[in-house]
Amino acid sequence: MSSPVEAKAAPAAKIGILTLAVMNVVAVVSLRGLPAEAEYGLSSIFYYLFAAVVFLIPVSLVAAELATGWPEKGGVFRWVGEAFGPRWAFVAMFMLWIEVTVWFPTGLTFGAVALAFTGPNQHWDQTLSANNMFVLAIVLGIYWLATFIAFRGVAAFTKASKWGGMIGTIIPAVILIALGFAYLMGGGKPQIELAWKDLIPDFTNFNNVVLAAGIFLFYAGMEMNAIHVKDVSNPTKNYPIAILIAALGTVTIFVLGTLAIAFIIPKSAINLTQSLLVAYFDMFKWAHIGWLAPVMAVALAIGVLAGVVTWVAGPSSGLLVVAKAGYLPRFWQKTNAHDMATHILLVQALLVSALSIMFVVLPSVQAAYQILSQLTVILYLVMYILMFSAAIYLRYSQPNRPRPYKIPGGDAGMWLIGGIGLLGSLLAFVLSFIPPGQISVGSPTLYVGILVGLTAFFVAIPFAIYAIRKPHWRDQESDFEPFTWEAEGGHPGIPSTSATAVGSLPQASAAKPKMVASKAL
């Protein structure tokens, strides 16, 4: 293990409201997913708002209560562990880490497509973007670059996330929305019907419901930066504000951006990996500024890099804390001078590289894209189901725990918000196994079999690791504080009535000199 960073080291810079809001927008918003929802035209508004009500808002509010009520290290691991114990906590943390590992190839595919569209000929660009070997090379190149940036620590990846997100996500989103609606207002013929009746989806077509279930993943990630709550200036006040700003910005970008694409690209011509770039090309051509198209493609690639850096650093840092607390072998606990999890990051990079080869093996980029996207949704929803369940249960097992931010309405308010999120997650989980009719995925039986098999495999891994854990895995200098019930000598799930639950946080690690500088997770 690398030499510990002494406590006298300079304190880490605090994260402000705007920076945290941008980090959350970058972590949640990906313009690459807009074409999939543009197929629905005006009815996409219904899907976005529905998913925001039953998923984004519950995730944001529940995460705010959990992060400020249990700000000790661990993030979702601590939240679930406080309710259900370390075994399920480890499952939740592992799901967060492995789902983002599975997601990286799909997210980076968009970066590869963006770079392909920097050429002078759109037809040639489209052909290049569909080339599996080109996609694989770019995916691996961007990911390993993001990994090396993450090695540089919190200061490096927060800057990359903030400025890369502004350049590659927020600014392109504003341009997309502005040009799309300018095209409409300027007399351009929209490629969708603009009738009020089209706001309500056709629920008789079950395929629409299945593919729309993937919209839940669009909103996933709002809880991720909660692991940095201690790095936020005045977290009790600023964290919920930043979450609110990010949530409103996310819904606005998704709704208006999707409609902008639907105005330009005919439904029959929509391609999951190319249509966003084609929309930009068509908009710039209409506005007589076609020379900006390659510039936008580069900006979008930068946005992908920023998003990947954010996601590489967050879950890996959380898994490091869990590893040092004794839940993973010492190999996984190695850190560098910036206190970043070098071995976790490297193993993750190798897994991403292996998964990316699927783009070469499977018959089309779009088929691999869909399978990995759905697997990501399924694994992530396992974590969300545990998170919502824990939030509800903790209202009863630790009723007196100080919660600087608390979902209003008492226990009924938690049941309403957390219950809606839980039911929405369960619904999306079930629907995610059903093949979408709009996308060719080969054999439906093989498609479902792959998803079921991979889901069972990845969920089984944390249970197996937990079963063979050893006492010597725990780092003696770990400053992971014990769970509340653990400090009281009790068991998870038993209501707390002691002073610890009423007003004080467990301080079991305070008596030991801290040789490692505290970094919020």
Question: What can you see in these coordinates?
Answer:
- With 521 residues, this protein is an all-alpha fold.
- The chain has one domain: Amino acid/polyamine transporter I (Up-down Bundle), CATH 1.20.1740.10.
- Helices cover 65% and strands 0% of the residues.
- It has helices at residues 17-28, 34-38, 43-69, 76-84, 86-116, 122-129, 132-150, 154-185, 206-212, 215-218, 235-264, 275-286, 292-327, 342-356, 358-361, 365-397, 410-431, 444-467, 484-487, 499-502.
- The protein is globular, with a radius of gyration of 23 Å.
- 53% of the residues are buried.
The SSE string, one letter per element, is HHHHHHHHHHHHHHHHHHHH
Just name the CATH architecture: Up-down Bundle
Class based on secondary structure composition and strand pairing: mainly alpha
Average pLDDT figure: 79
Give a short account of the largest sheet: none
State the shape: globular
CATH topology: Amino acid/polyamine transporter I
